Please model this.
Amino acid sequence: MTSVKKDFETEKQVFSEHIQKAGLRHTAQRDLILEIFLRTEEHLSSEDLYWLVHKEDSSVGHTTVYRTLKLLTDAGLAREVRFGDGKTYYEHHYNHEHHDHMICTECGKVVEFYSPEIEALQEKVAAEYGFKLTHHSMRILGLCEDCLTREKELNGAASGAQPRVRVKSVVGI
Amino acid sequence: MTSVKKDFETEKQVFSEHIQKAGLRHTAQRDLILEIFLRTEEHLSSEDLYWLVHKEDSSVGHTTVYRTLKLLTDAGLAREVRFGDGKTYYEHHYNHEHHDHMICTECGKVVEFYSPEIEALQEKVAAEYGFKLTHHSMRILGLCEDCLTREKELNGAASGAQPRVRVKSVVGI
DNA sequence: GAGATGTTGAAATTCGCCGTCATTTCGCTG
DNA sequence: CAGCGAAATGACGGCGAATTTCAACATCTC
Model:
């Protein structure tokens, strides 16, 4: 890296090539949306990103952001993720290792992790049932360290404290 | 078991106790919905169950079925599961082993599986990050044996066949 | 069995997703 | 660099699932 500030040259390159190959067009909106997406390290919903874009160019509409995120997904720059709240979030995908998510049900913190052992076992299980694995998703819900200690402190005062878990029965996907 | 036909006594008992403890009321609708839910072994959406109930008592509305399923979930008799099609399904939970799901992206078949190794690794990963694991969900997407062989046969005829995968980029949850 | 309170069910609302369409913009060509 | 055809844009609206509202009703308690 020659500069301290990231300029996302390679990502933009990937996007341009995808645009080219798919016979699509290069537009100012798409550039702006990509730029802001890359600058933001968090998991973003289409709506979240819309507001970030809106701050810099209020003429860009929801639809364009929505469609551009799909485009980024096709280009391999973004990845769709769902955390169980019904919304679709996007995260950086290019040059990012595959990973799964661990979510704190108290504060909403999201930790990304990767376990090669689990990956291998998934392949094994799939093979046992004759499946050819194409994707998988895994989500671990629990309490993060901070919320755990905070809860213990509270329990010191009030004994039968409520578990205060927001995500109730979203055990599924 | 003394009778061949399942009468779900214990499940009904659990439900009654939950109703009691929560200060709720025992109603004919709830009984009927529970009964039909228990009789049906598949993954049911609220809508699915509504129609089954409707056949036996057409006066019961969508809302009641919807709310009763939530109630059953709270009571620990049902579990919500989502397979990525936007709908929420429910499966039996009481006295049912925990398991995860493997879904065929071609025919929609759902296989339940359980891997103690994966479970243990999840605990381990959570511990590494200071998390106290409360739930988790895991979904493996792929092609089942039948669809795999069918695809191979088709590939014999048409060479560059499309992968025909319905679930595109639903990598998340 | 009467009153308090929880429950029911139709309808309406909310919310995210996605298609439509008139208008604008891009990128090529001459 | 002007013109043209195709693609992109953005406002709007439809759709389906989830959820809330509210008046009528059922259930439990005393």
About this structure: The first strand of chain B starts at residue 44 and ends at 45. Confidence is low (pLDDT under 50) at residues 157-173 of chain B. Helices of chain B lie at 9-21, 28-39, 46-56, 62-74, 116-128, 145-157. Residues 9-21 of chain B form the longest helix (13 residues).
